[in-house]
Amino acid sequence: MHVEFQPVQLVCNSDADGRLVFCDGQFAGVLSQLSDQYAEFAGRWFLEFGLGPLAFQEADFADLVDAAQWIERRLAT
User: Fold this and answer.
1) What is the model's pTM?
2) Would you kindly state where each structural domain of the chain is located, as residue ranges?
3) Which of 76, 21, 20, 19 shows the shortest CA–CA distance to 53?
């Protein structure tokens, strides 16, 4: 399985860095990078929206490598 991230700007309380998530070319979800307003979580990536096995999951990640590994595990089940 190949996880790919496409950069995108998200409209939130302020513009936020985001990534569209694709798995083997199929759209699977949206990640956002948490801002300074989230204190100790600032800079982490948060799953805003997921499809299929990623739906209704609350998850945050230290970096995109961590996110890709978690996504691969969820989609492999």
Assistant:
1) 0.89
2) 3-76
3) 76
